[in-house]
Design goal:
Length: 241
């Protein structure tokens, strides 16, 4: 949460909202998602545990508020897919053993809060780099489960697809550190590469789970904030006064 307060402080200190040329846009991207998966030793004894990536992505709308010539604050509303393939096994006692293969497709509503540094000036192509926080909440998803159990030498298998249950399958709220870099064209078209590392443990009970996502995206910013002649007009105004 410290990075969140730092971003908001920089934004408020650096921005004159009465002069900010606000831009609006859309962004969509594809990528990969996985989890940092760390089984706990209690209340069960794990014998193995790992997580592998699934295909992920995001789609949403954004707002871009210039703070000064090079800094910009960017936020928005996104839908994203995160999750992982989790495989683990454990035993409770000598007569009970269990092996689980679980594919989690988790749908989130994301609220990113990012401070961007942009080289050059508005109206020309420029590189972008940014850091921020992403607040996320689960809005759906599915849990594809294969559960193999051995109890007193009796075998049983559970196979099925279930809805993501907040508080049971996984915790609902997540906060992640967000890093991005890319290039913005004079027209407002931009391309980003991003990485988001969840800082919140969203696991329930017997393991620690933290989201990890990365990918590439493209978008377009239009509106008042994309007036590519603004800086030239400002210079003319100053010279004529």
């Amino acid at each position: 949460m410290r990075i969140l307060w730092l971003i908001l402080t920089i934004f408020l200190v650096s921005t004159d909202l009465t002069k900010a040329q606000v831009g609006y846009g859309v962004e969509g991207g594809i990528g990969m998602a996985t989890m940092k998966f760390a089984p706990l030793l209690r209340p069960v004894q794990y014998t193995s545990g790992n997580a592998t990536p699934i295909a992920g992505g995001k789609l949403g709308a954004l707002i871009d508020i210039p703070m000064n010539k090079h800094l910009s604050f960017q936020s928005g509303a996104y839908l994203s897919r995160k999750g992982a393939v989790r495989s683990f096994s454990y035993y409770k006692n000598d007569s009970f053993n269990e092996s689980v293969n679980q594919t989690l497709y988790i749908n989130y509503f994301d609220l990113p809060l990012t401070v961007l540094y942009k080289t050059g000036m508005q109206g020309k192509g420029r590189f972008i780099a940014g850091i921020g926080a992403t607040l996320s909440y689960i809005i759906g998803g599915k849990n594809m489960l294969h559960d193999h159990q051995v109890y007193n030498d009796t075998l049983s298998d559970i196979n099925g697809t279930y809805k993501i249950s907040i508080g049971n399958t996984i915790k609902g709220f997540d906060v992640g550190l967000h890093l991005t870099a890319g290039y913005e064209l004079p027209t407002g078209l931009f391309f980003h590469a991003w990485y988001t590392a969840g800082s919140t443990d969203i696991g329930v009970g017997t393991e620690i789970d933290k989201n990890r996502t990365w990918g590439v995206s493209a978008g377009y910013i239009f509106g008042k904030g994309r007036n590519i002649n603004k800086e030239a007009e400002d210079l003319i105004d100053k010279e004529t006064k």
